[in-house]
Amino acid sequence: MMFNFRLSLVKPVFGALAIALSLAACNSGQQAATDTADTADTSALPGEGVDVTPSYSLLEEVFQTEVINIGLERLGYTIEQPKELEYATMHVDIANGGIDYTAAHWERLHQEFFVNSGGEEKLERTGVYISNVLQGYKIDKATAEEYNITSLDQLKDPEIAALFDTDGDGKANLTGCNPGWGCELVIEHQLDEYGLRDVVQHDQGQYFALMADTITRYEQGDPVFFYTWTPLWIHGILEEGEDVNWVEVPYTSLPEDQGEISEADTSAEGKNLGFAVDQQVILANQEFVDNNPVAAKFFSLAQVPISDVSAQNQLMNDGEDSLEAIRGHAEAWVADNQAEFDGWVDAALSVQ
Known about the structure:
Number of domains: 2
Number of strands: 14
Number of helices: 14
Largest sheet: 5 strands, mixed
Helix content: 40-55%
Structural class: alpha/beta
Order of helices and strands: HEEHEEHEHEEHHEHEHEHEEEEHHHHH
CATH superfamily of the largest domain: Periplasmic binding protein-like II
Shape: elongated
Radius of gyration: 21 Å
CATH class of the largest domain: Alpha Beta
């Protein structure tokens, strides 16, 4: 699949040309969606009369949600206003039927949320929407090379930890994960497991505000140490191998609720990143899935390449971050992948 305004995530960050290209693509996608709506016989569509409520936790997840919404609309469903909720609350609301689906469920990272919300009795995971999503720790390349830092446990050396001290207490300041996301539980577990509690401060709050400060420090030539994940626009500014490096963990250790996970499960790009290599799947209310096999089939088929999500997130970072602009990005993506998208819709209709 190709994203018409897929952008190379290298510096300098996009300028007027990228914005112009994205706007042209959005206009194309909007026209395609209009043409489809004009020709569809909605009276014969299986979703007619059924309202669907989606949910997401981060604005960076709206694009992939809107791609699914466009497909559901093609099947006749009416999309209600999406709910923006923290992940734990979102899972409970899906299980209870207040929300019908989310396109932002991480299969392994959100396992505890899945189980605590009723598991397979109330929820159903369908398909692999975005594959090979990564998480882990990064530091700036200059500091890594100067001090030969390759593993997280090297921060047990107070002199190494102090390199990343931003508040003068001698501890490394880790730009970390928001409470309620799930990743904070892994970080807290690993700080204890690897003996880093006394030398690393896990800074939590608003992740993107903290990362804005982290990027500023990097641009000023200061060492940086942060948690991150893919897909995300940050990797277009702090590029792996050029600006920053993944830092390995000494061995694999994760909270028990994630199950049996080996080093092979947490390794990517030649390094043990410490977090399970994951996949984002569509999580739906079990009753909704049972009553709407056409929607369930579409959920199971839809896929978006991780590079396309990163490119769209970069457009958001460049200022195209309104809900209307993001909907335009989704429509443009559908137009650029029309044949494959139509195949998902047709396959879903075939299960009537």
